[in-house]
Recover the amino acids of this structure.
C-alpha cells in the first residue's frame, strides 16, 4: 500500500490503515515522516489524553490496562494502547503470550492494542513510541494508554511523553521502597499498589506515602527531618500543629498550584480500585489544565520532539547520503589495531561530511 | 587545569588528574575528546578486564562490588569502579549516601570509585560510562567494575560494554522469574542470587537455572518442550538419555565454543560466595579468549563506539556551528499552534544544514 493510499484510508477511518501506518513508523520506512506529519495536523483537534503506565515485570500492568479499557468503554470512550516490551534476542519476544492474547481478544472496534518491539530501536524508542501514540490519537482514540516495563532511563523517557504517568508497585516485589530510595520513581503522578489483597500491601503504601512526603506528621519528620513541609494539593500545609510553625509561615496556595501524587490500592484481577484510579487520572488532568501546565508541557514536548526528529533525520542523512558509513568501515581496522582512536576517526568523518554536505 | 596539563599529570599517574579527566568527559567540556583519544592509545597495552554488575535496587550490588574489590586487592590487583545511578530531579541524587560513603572510605590508592550522575545524559549515558571506564583502564586499573541499577534499555547498553556481565538477583524481590519471563535478563554471563541465606533463595536459583535451560532433564523439558537441547559448556550435550536422541544427532562441541551462564549463590554482606564469583568471572574471560570472542567483540564494540562518537560529534556540530537551534526556536510557535509539524520543520532545518554545511 502506498503512503498516499494509507493516508486516504486513515481519513476514511479504516483500522487496517492504522495498523499499516504504525508498521511504517516502527520500521521508519519510506514516507513515514509524511504519515506522521499528516497525523500531527489532526492532533490538536482530537483532544485525547495520554496515560503512561510503568512498573516492574509481574506487577500486573497488563491486567490494570485491561481494566482501564473496560472502565473507559463503559463511559463510551475509545481506547488505544501502546505496550512497549523488551525483546530478548534469544526469545525474539516469543514469551509475550499475554499481550498477544490481549490483542486478539479485543474484537471491540473502539479498542486498538499494539505491542511494540524494542529490537534495535535503542535511543529512538521513546520517540517512536510517542509517534505511535500520535497515530492513535490522530485516528480519534479518546484515551491512549502507554504501558512500559522497567525502571530504566529509556522507559522513563517513554513515560514522560504522557500527560499523566502511573507507577504500579506490588507488595512482594521489594521494588517499592528500594526503588524510591534509588530515586527512580520521581516521574509518576499517580502511584498504585496493585495486588493489594496480599500481605505487606498496607506497609508498602505507607512507606511510599512517607517517601513522597505526603504524611507531614511524626513519621515523615522521623524519616526525613531535613525536608521542609510542602504545601498539600488541597491548599493547606501539612504537619503545622506538630512542627509548631504558624499558618502565616506558608503563603496560601491555590488548589491547582501543587500536585501531590496519590498512592492508591488496587486488585486489578478483580477490578477493585479501578474507578478510583480513573478518577485520580481525571483529577490530574484537571490539575494540569487549571494550572496552565498542560499547555506549558505540550510546548516542551513539541520542542523536544522536533529536536529528536531533526537528530534522527540528520543520522539518516549521515548514513544514506554521505560517505560516513563507508569511511567508518575503512577506518575500523586502524581503530582496532590501536593506530587511531574513535575520536580521530569521528573528527575526520565529520570534516568530510561538512565539506561534502552541499554536494 | 588545561587539557595539556591534565594529560601530563595522567602520564605521571596522578589520581587527581584522573578525577579531573573524568569530570571533563562527563561534562563533555572543551578538549574531552582529546583526553579520550589519549586514553585510547593506552588501552590495548593495559589488558584490563571489565565486569558489568546489574540488578534491581536493593539487590546488594554495592556490597558485592565492595567484596569483589577486597578479593582483587588480596590478589594484588588494582580496581576501578564506575557506579551509574539514576538521579532524581527532586533529590538531586542526595539519597546516594551509600556510594558516597563507599567513595570516601576508600583510602587505598589502588582503588578508585566514581559515581556517575545520569542527569541530562539520556541517550549518551552508555557511551559516557564506557568512556569513563576507558579512562580508568588507561590509568592502569586491572579490573574495572561497572555497576548499574535497573533493567532498562540504557542500563543494558551500559552493561553490554563490559566483557562479562553479572546479573544480581535477590529472593524477596520477585525480580527473578518475572524478569526472566519478560526477557530482560538475556545479557548476563553470570547470575548471582545474593542474600541467599534468605527463604526462597534455592527456589529462585532453580527457577533461573530452568529458565536458562541449564537443567536438561525432566524439569527443563516440562517447562520448554519446544527447545532443542543445547550443548553444554563442558562439551557434552545434556538430556540425551532422557530424550532418546543418540549422541550422533549433535556434532562434537569444543569445550570453549559455548558458554552456559552459571547461577551462583552469595551472601555478600558476609563475603560468602565471592571467591566462586571471581572464579566464574575468570572462567568467562578464559572462555572469551579461547573461543576468539574477545577479539571479535572488541572489534564490534569499537565499531559501535566510533559510530556513537561520530553521532555525538554531529549533534554537537548541529547545535554549535549551524543555525539549527535558532531555526528550531523560531519555528516552535508554528509547531505548537499546529500550523506546521515537527517533521516539516526538521526537514527544513536539515535542508539548511546541508546547504550551509560547507561554509
Amino acid at each position: 500500500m502506498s503512503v498516499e493510499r494509507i493516508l486516504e484510508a486513515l481519513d476514511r477511518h479504516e483500522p487496517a490503515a492504522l495498523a499499516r501506518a504504525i508498521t511504517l513508523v516502527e520500521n521508519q520506512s519510506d514516507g513515514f515522516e509524511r504519515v506522521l506529519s499528516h497525523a500531527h495536523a489532526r492532533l490538536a483537534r482530537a483532544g485525547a489524553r495520554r496515560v503512561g503506565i510503568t512498573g516492574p515485570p509481574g506487577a500486573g500492568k497488563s491486567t490494570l490496562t485491561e481494566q482501564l479499557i473496560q472502565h473507559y468503554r463503559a463511559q463510551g470512550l475509545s481506547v488505544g494502547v501502546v505496550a512497549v516490551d523488551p525483546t530478548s534476542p534469544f526469545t525474539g519476544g516469543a514469551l509475550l503470550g499475554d499481550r498477544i492474547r490481549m490483542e486478539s481478544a479485543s474484537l471491540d472496534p473502539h479498542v486498538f492494542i499494539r505491542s511494540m518491539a524494542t529490537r534495535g530501536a535503542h535511543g529512538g524508542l521513546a520517540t517512536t513510541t510517542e509517534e505511535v501514540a500520535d497515530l492513535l490519537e490522530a485516528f480519534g482514540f479518546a484515551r491512549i494508554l502507554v504501558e512500559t516495563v522497567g525502571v530504566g532511563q529509556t522507559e522513563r523517557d517513554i513515560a514522560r511523553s504522557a500527560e499523566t504517568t502511573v507507577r504500579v508497585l506490588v507488595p512482594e516485589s521489594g521494588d517499592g521502597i528500594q526503588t524510591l530510595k534509588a530515586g527512580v520513581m520521581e516521574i509518576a503522578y499517580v502511584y498504585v499498589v496493585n495486588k493489594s489483597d496480599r500481605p505487606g500491601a498496607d506497609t508498602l503504601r505507607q512507606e511510599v506515602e512517607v517517601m513522597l512526603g505526603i504524611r507531614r506528621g511524626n513519621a515523615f519528620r522521623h524519616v526525613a527531618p531535613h525536608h521542609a513541609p510542602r504545601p498539600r494539593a488541597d491548599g493547606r500545609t501539612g504537619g503545622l500543629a506538630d512542627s509548631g510553625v504558624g499558618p502565616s509561615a506558608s503563603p496560601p496556595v491555590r488548589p491547582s498550584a501543587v500536585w501531590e501524587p496519590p498512592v492508591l490500592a488496587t486488585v486489578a484481577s478483580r477490578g477493585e480500585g479501578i474507578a478510583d484510579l480513573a478518577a485520580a487520572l481525571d483529577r490530574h488532568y484537571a490539575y494540569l489544565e487549571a494550572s496552565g501546565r498542560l499547555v506549558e508541557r505540550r510546548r516542551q514536548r513539541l520542542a523536544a520532539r522536533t529536536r529528536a526528529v531533526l537528530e534522527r533525520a540528520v543520522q539518516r542523512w549521515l548514513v544514506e547520503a554521505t560517505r560516513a558509513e563507508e569511511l567508518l568501515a575503512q577506518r575500523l581496522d586502524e581503530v582496532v589495531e590501536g593506530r587511531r582512536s574513535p575520536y580521530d576517526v569521528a573528527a575526520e568523518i565529520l570534516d568530510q561530511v561538512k565539506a561534502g554536505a552541499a554536494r
Notes: The first helix of chain A runs from residue 3 to 11. The radius of gyration of chain A is 24 Å. Strands of chain A lie at 49-55, 79-85, 111-117, 143-149, 164-169, 190-193, 263-265.
